[in-house]
Design goal:
heterotrimer, A alpha+beta (about 425), B alpha/beta (about 140), C alpha/beta (about 325), A: about 425 residues, alpha+beta, Cytochrome-c3 Hydrogenase, chain B, four-stranded mixed sheet, three-stranded antiparallel sheet, 13 helices, about 40% helix, globular, C: Rossmann fold, 7 strands
C-alpha cells in the first residue's frame, strides 16, 4: 500500500492536507483538517458582547452574524444607518473574498512575487501579471473599505448589539463610494479576462473542467427574515424552515482522520465518504446560492449569470467550473450592491445604535458569508454569560463536499499513472472555489 | 502532606501591621516560621502584580496586612487595598487558585495577638491545601 | 545578508489560528512596491504551495503566525527555527498564544480526536492539551503583535527585515509611536536588537485619542449599555477597557471606533502581568469606602481571566504560563 500526503496545499483557509492511499485498487483521498477549531468552546463562559470579536477567528462575516444574534438576544432593532453599514461591510467582505480567490487563480501558474523585469511581456496578449496586479490593487482597496466600515479588515470590531459602534466621518463617504466604483470596474475587467482565458474554454481551469460532485442539495438564506431554504440536488425547493431549526435538519459527523466535522442532512443519515455518495450531503456558497435558478437582482451580475447558463446549461450545477463562474457572478453582484449602498444618505444617521433595555437569554442569526451560509445560536444566563453556543461555519457545511472533490481530483491522475504533482494541482484548483 | 511547609509572603504596612508583627516577636508569641515579611509603607502600595509575582515565584500563600480603615497613615491608602482585594481574589479564583491562599487583613499596631493568630491559622489552612501549583504543563 | 543583487530568502507559515496575518502580508506585496524586488519567497504554502523540503535550502527571514497547538505546529516551529537566520512571531497567536490560548483556561482531559486504529486510514497530528506561543517552543528574534497586526507595523517589519531600508515606500508611523530602534531599522536597514517588538513603547492610552479626566466612576458598565461613543475615556465611563495594560502601536484603533480595547497587542512592556494591571486599574475607578458595596460592584464583573488575558493567556499570564519546553 502506498500513501502520499499533500501538505502545503495552496489557498486553504484552514490548515489541512490531503492524504491519498492506494491499496491495489482505486485511490482513496482523505481531506484532513489538521488543527482543531472549536469556536463554540471559546464562547462558553464569555460575556455575550464579546462574541462578535471572538468569532471572527472563523471568518470576518462571523462578526456580523454574532452582532445580529445579539440584536435578537437583546431584542433591539438597529437603526437603518447601522443595518446599512453592516450590509456594506458584508458586501465588502464578499468583494475581498472573491477578488482574493481570483487573484489566487490568476497567479496559480506563476508566482505573484516574481519580478517584472524577469518576465517576458507578450504584446497583444492579455498579460496575466497585469491581471494579478489589478486584482492585488483592488484587494487593497477593498481592505481599506473594510477598515473604514469595520475598524479592522480581518477581525472587524464595529458591529455591536443594537447597531454599530460609531458613525462614519464625513471623509469616509466619498472614499467608500470611490472604492465601491473601483471594485465594480475591476470586477468588470476581470469578467472580460476570464471570458477569454478561463470560461468556457478554460485554459487556466483546463485541468479541472471535468471535476464535479453532484449536483448536491444546497442550503441558503431565504429572502424573508429568519428562515433558510433547503433545495434538493435538482434545485427544487425541498423546504423552508426557521433558522433555529437548523440543527434539527443538519447533523455533524466526526471522523478520526480530520479535526473538522462533516455536516450532513439528518434525515438521510450519514453515508461513509468512501462510498462516494453525495446523497446525504448539502453545500453552501456562491454556487449553492445560485442553484435555485433565480435571476440575480443587479444587471452586470445577471448578465454574467446568463452567460453561464448559455455556456453550461440551466442551474443546478455542481462542477468546479460552475463554482468559479458563480463566484464571478456574486463578485459582480456584491460590487454593484456596494455601489448602491455606499451613498451618504444610507450611511448617515443620528445614532449608530439602539440601546437595549433588557437582557434576553437566547440569540440566533444566520447570514450569507462569502464562503456560504453561517449560523450562530447561543444561550446566556441572566448576567449575559454564554452557557452554550452552537455554530455552523461554511467550512464545516462544505467539509464533506471538499472531501469528495479531493477524491474526484485524484482518481484520474492515479488511473493514468501521472506524477503526484498533477493530482496535487487538481486538488488545489478544485477546492479553491468552495 | 504533613511534612509540607507552606511558604507565605506577607506584605505588611509599616505603620500598623509591621509594628504588630514586631511586637508579637518581641513578646515571644509562638508563631509558625513559614512567613516571610516584606515591609511596605502602606497596604495601598501593594500592587496586585506583587501578589501575582509572589505566587508565580513559588509562594503558597500571600497575606497583605494593613491598618484598619480610618487609621491609615496616608489617610486612604488602605482603602485602595480594600478596593483591589476582592477583584484580585476573583481573578485568582478564575485561574484556579483556592480562596484561602490570598488574604487581606486589617491589623492595628496594638494587635500582636491577632497578627499571631492570623499567620498561624493561615499556615495551617494552607498546609491542608497543599503547595500552590501553577497550572503548568 | 542583503548585499546588492542578493535577495532575502523569505518564508511565511501559519500554525493554528486563522489566515488573517498571511492575508495581511499579501497586501504588503502591493504596498511595498513589489516584494519580489527584495525577497525570494522560498516557502509560503498558502500562496505558493511550496513543500517543506524548500526550507532545507536555508531561510533568511521566516514570518511565523499561529499558535502552537498540535504536534505538527511544534515541528514546523522547530524546523523553521533551525533553518532560519531570523524568526519573527507575527500576530497575537504566535506572539503570545492568541485566541486559541483561551483553551488553556480549561484544558481538555481527552485529546480532541481519538487516534485512529486502522492501518490504512491516515493519522492526524496529535493535539497538545495547551496552546502555546511560538516563543515558548523556540527562540524568537522579533515580534509583530496584534490580531491581526496593523498594516503599518507589518510593513515596518518588512521594511526593516526584508527591504533593509531600501524600499521607496514612505509610511507614516506617528500614530504608532515607534521606539527609536524600530524607526532606525526601517529607514536605515540596521537590524534592531534581538527580541524587539514592532510596536510602541508604552500603553495604548498613549495613542488613544479619547479625553482622559478624573477616573472615578464607581460603576461596572457593559458594552451594550449607553456610553459616550466618542470623546471620553472608556475606563472612566466604567467599561472594562484594557488599553491601560496593552502595548501601544495600533494607534488606539478600537477605542477610536468606540469599542473597548481587548489587549490584542499583548501586555505593555512596563507591566508584569496584564491581569494584575487591570485589577489595579479597575479598582482605582471605584469610589466606595464600604466593603459591602465594593463586594457588590465586584460581583458584576464577569469572566476576568477570559477578558484580561483574551489574547495573551499562554505566555503572559504569570500564574498559568508554562516554563519553556
Amino acid at each position: 500500500m502506498s500513501k502520499v500526503t499533500f501538505d502545503s496545499l495552496r489557498w486553504l483557509e484552514q490548515p489541512a492536507q490531503v492524504t491519498v492511499t492506494v491499496n491495489g485498487g482505486p485511490p482513496r483521498a482523505y481531506f484532513q483538517a489538521t488543527s482543531p477549531r472549536d469556536a463554540a468552546a471559546l464562547c462558553k463562559g464569555r460575556l455575550v458582547e464579546e462574541l462578535p470579536r471572538i468569532l471572527s477567528i472563523l471568518s470576518p462575516a462571523h462578526h456580523l452574524c454574532a452582532a445580529q444574534a445579539l440584536d435578537r438576544l437583546f431584542n433591539v432593532e438597529p437603526p437603518a444607518v447601522a443595518l446599512n453599514m453592516r450590509e456594506a461591510l458584508r458586501r465588502v467582505l464578499f468583494v475581498r473574498h472573491f477578488l482574493r480567490k481570483f487573484y489566487f487563480l490568476a497567479s496559480s501558474q506563476e508566482s505573484p512575487f516574481a519580478e517584472l523585469r524577469s518576465r517576458e511581456v507578450r504584446p497583444g496578449k492579455r498579460d496575466l501579471h497585469g491581471v494579478v496586479q489589478d486584482l492585488s490593487r483592488h484587494l487593497s482597496l477593498a481592505q481599506e473599505a473594510a477598515i473604514i466600515l469595520g475598524g479592522r479588515a480581518d477581525h472587524p470590531v464595529t458591529a455591536v448589539a443594537g447597531g454599530v459602534s460609531r458613525s462614519l466621518r464625513e471623509e469616509h463617504h466619498p472614499r467608500l463610494a470611490e472604492i465601491a466604483a473601483a471594485c465594480r470596474d475591476c470586477a468588470v475587467r476581470l469578467s472580460a479576462f476570464v471570458r477569454e482565458d478561463v470560461f468556457p474554454a478554460g485554459k487556466l481551469l483546463a485541468d479541472v473542467q471535468d471535476i464535479a460532485v453532484g449536483p448536491l442539495a444546497s442550503l441558503s438564506l431565504a429572502p424573508e427574515p429568519d428562515r433558510l431554504i433547503l433545495r434538493d440536488a435538482k434545485g427544487k425547493e425541498l423546504e423552508r424552515f426557521a433558522t433555529t431549526a437548523l440543527f434539527d435538519k443538519v447533523a455533524l459527523q466526526r471522523e478520526p482522520w480530520s479535526y473538522e466535522p462533516f455536516a450532513f442532512l439528518k434525515d438521510k443519515g450519514w453515508k461513509d465518504l468512501a462510498a462516494g455518495s453525495a446523497e446525504s450531503l448539502f453545500f453552501v456558497g456562491p454556487l449553492a446560492r445560485l442553484n435555485g435558478g433565480e435571476a440575480v437582482a443587479t444587471p452586470l451580475a445577471e448578465a454574467e449569470r446568463l452567460r453561464l447558463v448559455e455556456a453550461m446549461g440551466p442551474f443546478p450545477h455542481g462542477g468546479v467550473l460552475a463554482a468559479y463562474w458563480a463566484m464571478l457572478v456574486q463578485l459582480l453582484e456584491a460590487a454593484e450592491v456596494l455601489v448602491a449602498t455606499c451613498e451618504v444618505e444610507k450611511l448617515s444617521g443620528p445614532a449608530p445604535r439602539t440601546i437595549p433595555t433588557a437582557l434576553g437569554q437566547e440569540g440566533h442569526a444566520a447570514l450569507e458569508s462569502p464562503q456560504g451560509l453561517i449560523y450562530h445560536r447561543f444561550r446566556a444566563d441572566e448576567r449575559g454569560v454564554v452557557q452554550e453556543a452552537q455554530i455552523l461555519d461554511a467550512a464545516t457545511a462544505n467539509n464533506a463536499l471538499l472531501a469528495l472533490l479531493a477524491q474526484r481530483a485524484v482518481e484520474e491522475p492515479v488511473a493514468q499513472s501521472k506524477p503526484w504533482e498533477v493530482a496535487r494541482k487538481r486538488v488545489e484548483l478544485s477546492l479553491l472555489p468552495f | 502532606m504533613s511534612d509540607f511547609e507552606p511558604q507565605i509572603i506577607a506584605f505588611l504596612c509599616n505603620w500598623c501591621t509591621y509594628v504588630a508583627a514586631d511586637a508579637a516577636g518581641v513578646s515571644r508569641f509562638i508563631q509558625k516560621p513559614n512567613v516571610r515579611v516584606i515591609r511596605m509603607n502602606c497596604s495601598g502600595m501593594v500592587d496586585p502584580s506583587y501578589i501575582i509575582k509572589a505566587f508565580a515565584s513559588g509562594a503558597d500563600g500571600v497575606l497583605v496586612g494593613g491598618c484598619w480603615p480610618g487609621d491609615c497613615h496616608y489617610i486612604s491608602g488602605n482603602i485602595k487595598a480594600m478596593r483591589r482585594a476582592p477583584l484580585l481574589q476573583k481573578l485568582l479564583g478564575e485561574l484556579g487558585m483556592e480562596e484561602l491562599r490570598f488574604r487581606l487583613k486589617w491589623i492595628a499596631a496594638s494587635e500582636p495577638g491577632p497578627y499571631q493568630k492570623t499567620i498561624n491559622e493561615m499556615t495551617e489552612e494552607i498546609r491542608k491545601l497543599g503547595p500552590y501549583k501553577r497550572s503548568a504543563a | 545578508m542583503s548585499r546588492p543583487g542578493q535577495k532575502v530568502k523569505l518564508a511565511v507559515h501559519t500554525a493554528t489560528g486563522c489566515r488573517a496575518c498571511e492575508q495581511g502580508m499579501l497586501d504588503v506585496n502591493n504596498e511595498v512596491s513589489e516584494l519580489g524586488r527584495f525577497a525570494e519567497v522560498v516557502f509560503w504554502p498558502y500562496v505558493l504551495g511550496t513543500p517543506w523540503e524548500a526550507v532545507e535550502g536555508g531561510v533568511d527571514v521566516a514570518l511565523f503566525a499561529g499558535a502552537i497547538h498540535t504536534e505538527a505546529d511544534r515541528q514546523a516551529a522547530m524546523k523553521l527555527r533551525e533553518r532560519s537566520k531570523i524568526l519573527v512571531s507575527v500576530g497575537a497567536c504566535a506572539a503570545f498564544g492568541g485566541l486559541p490560548g483561551l483553551v488553556n483556561l480549561a484544558p481538555p482531559a481527552e485529546p480532541a480526536v481519538a487516534a485512529t486504529e486502522s492501518e490504512d486510514k491516515p493519522t492526524l497530528p496529535r493535539t497538545e492539551p495547551r496552546a502555546l506561543a511560538l516563543s515558548q517552543v523556540v527562540e524568537v528574534d522579533y515580534v509583530v503583535p496584534g490580531c491581526p497586526p496593523t498594516q503599518n507595523l507589518l510593513w515596518a517589519a518588512t521594511l526593516a527585515l526584508v527591504c533593509r531600508g531600501e524600499s521607496p515606500a514612505r509610511l507614516s508611523y506617528s500614530v504608532a509611536r515607534l521606539p527609536e530602534a524600530v524607526a532606525e531599522a526601517i529607514t536605515s536597514g540596521v537590524l534592531p536588537p534581538r527580541g524587539t517588538v514592532f510596536a510602541g513603547e508604552k500603553a495604548v492610552c498613549g495613542s488613544c485619542s479619547r479625553v482622559k479626566e478624573e477616573k472615578k466612576s464607581g460603576t461596572c458598565k457593559r458594552p451594550y449599555q449607553a456610553y459616550d461613543l466618542t470623546g471620553r475615556c472608556l475606563l472612566e465611563q466604567g467599561l472594562v477597557c484594557q488599553g491601560v495594560a496593552t502595548q501601544e502601536g495600533c494607534g488606539g484603533l478600537c477605542t477610536g471606533v468606540g469599542v473597548p480595547c481587548r489587549g490584542c497587542f499583548g501586555k505593555a512592556p512596563a507591566i508584569m502581568d496584564p491581569g494584575a494591571k487591570m485589577v489595579s486599574a479597575i479598582a482605582s475607578t471605584f469610589d466606595s469606602k464600604n466593603a459591602q458595596e465594593i463586594a457588590g460592584l465586584v460581583g458584576s464583573f464577569v469572566d476576568l481571566a477570559g477578558t484580561f488575558y483574551r489574547y495573551s493567556l499562554p505566555s503572559q499570564c504569570a500564574l498559568l504560563a508554562p516554563r519553556r519546553g
